């Protein structure tokens, strides 16, 4: 009589870290956020992201970044956070002379 192997205990999915997934397409120059997923480790995050977000071979590079490692500004602080650049008028091109022969400016 053969014994059935006991499956290894798995950690519940809720305890897996959340990853943000960025994919660079074949025609793109930058990575674009395409979604989020939970995975047990970095390798699993990359494999699952490949299977989930590049099913039609549209990607050439994938970044899987733990959400806890991303520093972001808060949406409710957008006015005070970006306000300092408004008082630096030298950053605006209105003070520069643009030659006539320069197109598309």
UniProtKB/TrEMBL annotation:
Looking up InterPro entries in the UniProt record yields: PaaB, PaaB_sf
Ranges in a coiled coil: none
Alphabetically list the UniProt keywords: Oxidoreductase
What Enzyme Commission number(s) does the record list for this chain? 1.14.13.149
Highest taxon of the lineage: Bacteria
Please verify whether the record's keywords include Oxidoreductase: yes
A Pfam family assignment: PaaB
- List the GO molecular function terms: phenylacetyl-CoA 1,2-epoxidase activity
For this entry, the protein name equals: 1,2-phenylacetyl-CoA epoxidase subunit B
């Amino acid at each position: 009589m053969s014994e059935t192997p006991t499956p290894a205990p798995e950690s519940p999915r809720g305890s897996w870290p959340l990853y943000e997934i960025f994919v660079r397409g074949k025609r793109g120059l930058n990575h674009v956020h395409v979604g989020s997923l939970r995975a047990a480790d970095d390798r699993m995050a990359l494999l699952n992201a490949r299977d989930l977000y590049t099913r039609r071979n549209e990607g050439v590079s994938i970044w899987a970044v733990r959400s806890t490692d991303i520093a972001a500004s808060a949406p409710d602080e957008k006015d005070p956070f970006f306000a300092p650049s408004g008082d630096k008028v030298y950053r605006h091109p209105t003070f520069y002379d643009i030659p006539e022969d320069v197109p598309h400016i």
